[in-house]
Amino acid sequence: MRLAPLPADQWDDSVTNALSGLMPPERHNPEATGNLVATLVRHPQLTRAFLRFNFHLLYGSTVPARIRELAVLRVARLTNCEYEWRHHVDMGREAGLSDDEIAGIERGELSDDLDRAVLSAVDELQHDSVVSDATWSVLAAHFDERQLMDLVFTIGCYGSLAMAINTFGVEPDVNMEAER
């Protein structure tokens, strides 16, 4: 671990301000926010800006939750981000992904054309920083412009987050360990 979660006795007004309006006050502590947010709040201004963007992708995105979680899980697998993977497996199940589909995401093999195109978009963006014309055509047959934009930014955001998690050495939360 390169950056430890900020200890509770160091959570000051700058941390409270960073989380204000984004999380309920009862979650303004390291135990309730989990290791990721507790680590990010070492830089309160960055945390606030990032969480606003990330919360749009989680709660305000035009992309259906199932597709979002399929993309996030593929990012987590490609980046070997165990924290992100564990967290989003549960979210994926809640969004309608089956255990077989989650296993297929790990392997990069899904049977549905749209699902395969989402996996391809993640793979292409992670490897080449561009979605191929062939993949874009499949996606564009199912999504409007805003959905396409939200999908690309979801993949990019979670790729960036995985890089930060892996670099900082953010450890899975204790409740995530129990679920494994």
TrEMBL record:
The residue ranges of the Carboxymuconolactone decarboxylase-like domain are 44-122
Give the superkingdom in one word.
Bacteria
Official protein name in the record: Carboxymuconolactone decarboxylase family protein
What is the organism of origin for this protein?
A: Mycolicibacterium iranicum
Q: What taxonomic lineage is listed for the species of origin?
A: Bacteria, Bacillati, Actinomycetota, Actinomycetes, Mycobacteriales
